[in-house]
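YM 10:42: SnoaL-like domain-containing protein sequence, as discussed on the call
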Amino acid sequence: MHPFRKAVEAGDHAAIEALLAEDVVFTSPVAFKPYPGKAITAAILRGVSRVFTDFRYVREIAGAEGRDHALVFEAKVGDKTITGCDFLHFDEDGRIDDFMIMVRPLTAAVALSEAMGAQFDRIAREAAQGAGA
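YM 10:58: structure's back
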C-alpha cells in the first residue's frame, strides 16, 4: 500500500502534508484553475476530508517507474455517491509534485463543488496560516 493511501485512510493530515512537495500543483475536479503550493493543497485536502463521508480507496495503480500512482476511490457527498481517482506524480525526492483529482457522475461533482464552495473561506484561512508557518 502506498504511503499516501495509508495516510489518507488513517486520517493522518500531518503525514499527508509531509508527502507534498513545496511546489505541488493541485488540479481540482470542479475548478478551472490549478492551485499551486503545499499550503493550499494541504488545506484543500483537509476540506475534502470534511466533505466526504464513507470514503474508501477501491483500487491502486502504480506506474512502472514508481513515480506515478492512481488511487481510485468511492465516497459520499451528502446523499450522492461519488467515484473518483487521485492521480499523483512524485518528484525525485518522493514528494507529490502534481496532484489531480477526477470525479463522476456529474450530479456528485456538482454536490462536491457546492460542498467545497461552502468550505472555501476556511480553506483560504488554513492555507494562509500554513504558508506563514
